[in-house]
Amino acid sequence: MMKKCCAVIAAAGGSSRMELDFSKQFFPICGVPVIVRTLRAFENAGTVDAVIVVCRSSDKKRLEEYITEYGIKKVISIVAGGVTRQESAAFGAAAVPEGYGYIAVHDGARPLVTPEEIDCCVNDCFVTGASALGVPLKDTVKKIDAGGFVVSTPKRSEIMAIQTPQVFEYRIYMKALAHAQETGADYTDDCQLVEHIGVKVHICSGDYGNIKITTPDDIYSAESILKRRGISL
What we know:
alpha/beta, Spore Coat Polysaccharide Biosynthesis Protein SpsA, Chain A, 233 residues, globular, two-stranded antiparallel sheet, 7 helices, seven-stranded mixed sheet
């Protein structure tokens, strides 16, 4: 199998919790739009050969302008997203050209991922077939019942918070997508897709700074992280 990886950046979300009248992908973090910071990380990742961006149709023109303005070279296609994240990822995966043996699916709203983290995850997938970034939980997790009472306490050492990118052999990912579509399943996490066809996903060590921009507070957190890093990328 060719060790060529194409990244699919899922950037078609509605941004409802950001309370904006435009896509959160275009919100500036330390002066640079969220999606541009995300694309720069993949631009500088040596293991990624091409990038496909999945966005809302109304965002395509502005995205194209940013790609040109910021000199992003790896984007080979921009496709319209679907109703759900899984559908959007499927549209992106369908646009991957022949010759790519691996696919890295990443949230467009995770702009602080580093090229080193991307390379670590992709290289891990070259060995394991399925890999995702993850970090240990800092808080104790409780399982509760419908009434809100604690049922059990999972061992924190056995629980991880999963991030993106999530990287898979392309044939495995497409098989998993087909299975989900056949069974009517809809997952918010790509690892779930492959787990449900019996594939084990190996967790590659991530970083707590790889946050997802979901609410306005996340902007302040992201800018603080960038400043501690010296505002690279």
